[in-house]
From TrEMBL, chains A, B:
Chain intervals with Basic and acidic residues compositional bias: 39-55
GO biological process: aspartyl-tRNA aminoacylation
Principal location class: cytoplasm
Extent of Low complexity compositional bias: 13-23
Top EC class of this enzyme: ligase
Protein name per UniProt: Probable aspartate--tRNA ligase, cytoplasmic
Native source species: Calycina marina
Compartments (UniProt record): Cytoplasm
Annotated GO MF terms: aspartate-tRNA ligase activity; ATP binding; RNA binding
Length: 559, 559
């Protein structure tokens, strides 16, 4: 398959239309859509024509040969541009009149007759998120001096397809009025040289976001999520997905810094394990030389080994794997877990409050650090501001209190829910709505889950053998975190296993219990959070797959 | 299997001997080994006796019942201790005379007659590395006041097995002379209350490090590496492995902070991929519902997709998987890769210098941040100080220059090495020795590898089609990093694939090439480093498995 026959039928939000062919100069954005159907053919023609004309056409300044021919064309080694190497965001008055280098992407292009072309250039992001760095650039006919710009050169520039990678040498100038359509509107670039690093295919006027540049929504065709996932590079260039990526990064780094500040030590649990230690359901099996291995469903046993090994507090940020054959909005087969485990000195509430402290800090930081991104995303996926409890009034209900609330004030179908049965997802959502109404918070904890609803390692409440020192955390009625105290004495752990019908001598489990037999292990507890879920539920996105760069689902392993 | 029948036949370096049974008080360290064989039986007897005697024995202060019985025993809920909650490292004069809480491990124990027992208590690490926090504690008979300590209590304390988890309430005092055997020697703890959180099995006098507490090596039996790997909690408690873990953490965080400072954005490549994209050799296969998936051998394609997607610079710290059935000192089937990829503005040397900058910073930081750890590890694994080039004189040889050096000055068997063939490991080591002698550096780069020795994605040097813009980095003659510029134009990439006999339409590869067809991708390059290898080669350890917490080898998937 060659480049010419491959077309990606989407364009980024930042690219309002295909390059306007010659003769349609000055065309408005609204008009651009009409031109789009013709754009591919015309631009291809124009590009080929430019090639032919480069040698043949008589430039305005010389006879027989294009005097500007060294100033454009394919990028080569060594590069022909030179100037100040700087970030667009650092442009200042002092740079006016000086040449700079730009390495980035052609975002929009608009020819104005034969003598001028207006471009929008976008810098590659380090700056992920809504705050893209783009700037207007102009190539205007110039027949004098060293930096000649010929009509042929202008025609060639007009033929560059949007989203191509380009390198540019240009003089910084101040526009008469700030340019509104770009983020760096106080300056513009007057092109001296421009080279094509790699050409994009022709972009069609189909948006993969429903609006552009914070203006009102553009009506018209959009693309499906599967198409976006099939085209990762195009998706990553969109403002929407960059904004989500920024929020995700802030969640990730807030977790890491909170953990470090509190004396937690980073470690790496293994992905491949020797036995399906949590019962064998939903585990991926690997062919491991002459035997089988499995992909870890949780780093929990390994966190506990670190605590038994004398660490006071540990955390990890690692992929975990769940072989659930469910194409739902909540599940991926691989996701990044934020996990922590800590020694308990007196009471497991030390763990619960540590986790709560992280989430409170996060929910307070996000609106500050990601204001522009959250606002941008809300244009397409509206969400109410995330309601937090007043400081000191954080909500921790027992599981039994939660069920009581559902029984007494919840929907009809939940009038008979029992304190001994786990909650279903619909129950959780109904409880979330009740709590939001009653306590004015989107964030709360359900504590003391019944023993019947927790795995064998959940520590029994010393004051009540029917419940555990284990909890779930909720955002907008959806669970995001599960954790609790674990058994630290081998004999108690083994008894709990037998009570649950689990064989303590099964492969993987024996090695686990042996850890507690090999030393005296401190009391400890922890919890794990799905990184994508926090982001998805915070932003009220329709699914968790939108948050991951390369989501894995039962029906998706590419790219 | 119950606790009583399970014995772990090793002890940590910090625990010089099993608890001395009553009547052998004051026994020397040398004598301890003789006592070890008897220790288990005696200590079990002692523990049971203590239980019986708790009720029956007449304490020195009261008739019929042990008046101290509330001050020791099993830990319970709520905890019976109270005092200042603080790190041992923060102890200061102002705390003298006050009670503190301690939650940690019993490290050594020595009874002195019936009226006194000396303990060493070790705090759990946040403070990983050689700088363990341990302190001397004393329980002495006290018949007056509230905080009575009875002889029965002292006997019970003497029976606690080493490496048990304990909680202690104690008054801070200043010893007459600093205690030399512990790190917090300026204070000691006078025990008021002590409870057993979880009991360790009896420890035998077999060291898993060859020396203890920075003193001269203890002669005597040691344990094999497999035994250590089978007992992770015990291994993690040793100073050696904590010191290695500290060095590893510093490498990891130096990479992360260097990347962040230079504008790189963290992302997560997937572990599960849809096709064995690098040819199918050495790839683990997963049963993925009705189809097959594979474990990623490298995040490279995904880094490139992020660059094509408009990111300027990205990095990741993620597990990668290699199904190499080789039990060597250099290989693990799963390891953590430090990976980066960046847009090239003018020349691929930008990437090479970025990576070199990281390693130079790291090698300058390590001796400062890990002095104690490096010195500790060298007692067992001697290594020379890592030689760095003078600033500004970093060594970058071309591959051809390296081969020439080998031909002209290397060992006899390398007199005929060719510029077109890849180097073998013995060649690399010989070259490392030559370079060290000639240029006085353990760190250098080999650049411009021949096209024949690099994969299809390696960018051809525009000035010489026989070599690539690709390089390896070396430490002490061993490769730690591989990287280079990659093709960014789909037609060039496809041509390179066909030249190498690789089908550009094969599953996984087609999706990869399509990424470059879908946009105009900037010039870019990157590199990847094995986290464990840097640590192992820097410390001159015998293998990389010693560096990982849970190493994975063809014959090891547990724990």
């Amino acid at each position: 398959m060659t480049e010419e026959t491959k077309e990606i039928p989407i364009r980024t939000a930042e690219a309002p239309a295909a390059a306007a062919p010659e003769g349609e100069a000055g065309e408005s954005k609204k008009g651009a859509k009409k031109a789009a159907a013709k754009a591919k053919k015309e631009a291809e023609k124009a590009a080929k024509a430019a090639e032919r004309e480069k040698a043949a056409q008589v430039s305005s300044a010389a006879g027989g040969e294009d005097v500007a021919k060294e100033n454009y064309g394919d990028s080569c080694y060594p590069s022909k541009i030179s100037g100040l190497s700087m970030s667009l965001g650092d442009l200042a008055k002092e740079h006016v009149g000086k040449p700079i280098e730009f390495h980035g992407f052609l975002q929009t292009s608009r020819k104005q007759g034969a003598k001028m072309v207006f471009l929008e250039l976008r810098a590659p992001g380090g700056g992920i998120g809504a705050n893209v760095q783009d700037i207007q650039a102009i190539a205007a006919e110039n027949t004098e001096g060293e930096d000649v710009v010929s009509r042929t050169m202008i025609k060639w520039i007009g033929g560059i397809s949007l989203e191509s990678a380009v390198e540019v040498q240009a003089i910084v100038k101040e526009p008469l009025e700030p340019v509104k359509s770009v983020s760096i509107g106080g300056f513009e670039l007057h092109i001296q040289r421009i080279y094509l690093v790699a050409s994009a295919p022709i972009q069609l006027a189909v948006s993969h976001e429903a609006s552009s540049n914070n203006e009102a929504a553009i009506p018209g065709p959009t693309v499906g999520f599967a198409t976006l996932l099939d085209n990762p590079a195009m998706r990553f260039r969109g403002t929407m997905f960059n904004s989500i990526a920024k929020v995700r990064n802030v969640v990730d780094f807030t977790f890491r810094s909170y953990m470090e500040e509190n004396g937690f030590v980073l470690f790496y649990p293994p992905a491949m394990i020797g036995a399906a230690s949590e019962g064998g359901a939903n585990v991926f099996k690997i062919k491991y030389f002459e035997t089988d291995a499995f992909l870890a469903q949780s780093p929990q046993f390994y966190k506990q080994m670190k605590i038994a090994g004398g660490q006071r507090r540990v955390y990890c940020v690692s992929p975990v794997f769940r072989a659930e054959n469910a194409n739902t909005s909540r599940h991926m087969t691989e996701f990044i877990g934020l996990d922590m485990e800590m020694q308990i000195e007196k009471d497991y509430s030390e763990v619960l409050l540590m986790l709560q402290g992280f989430l409170l800090r996060l929910f307070n930081l996000l609106p500050q650090k990601c204001r522009a991104e959250i606002d941008y995303i809300r244009k397409f996926y509206p969400s109410e501001e995330f309601l937090l409890p007043e400081p000191g009034k954080e909500l921790i209900l027992s599981f039994a209190e939660g069920q009581k609330l559902l029984r007494e004030e919840g929907p009809e179908e939940f009038r008979n829910v029992s304190d001994d049965d786990d909650m279903s997802t619909p129950q959780e959502k109904a409880l979330g709505a009740l709590i939001k109404e009653k306590f004015k918070t989107d964030f709360y904890v359900l504590d003391k889950f019944p023993t019947s609803a927790r795995p064998f390692y959940a520590y029994t409440d010393p004051a009540n053998p029917n419940v555990t020192n284990a909890y779930d955390f909720f955002m907008r009625g959806q669970e995001i975190l599960s954790g609790g105290q674990r058994f630290h004495k081998p004999e108690e752990l083994e008894a709990s296993m037998r009570n649950k019908g689990v064989d303590p001598n099964a492969p993987g489990l024996k090695e686990y219990v042996d850890v507690f037999r090999s030393v005296g292990c401190p009391k400890h507890g922890g919890g794990g959070i799905g990184l994508d879920r926090i982001v998805a539920w915070y932003l009220n996105l329709p699914n968790v797959q939108m948050v991951a760069d390369f989501p894995r689902m039962p029906n998706r392993l590419f790219p």
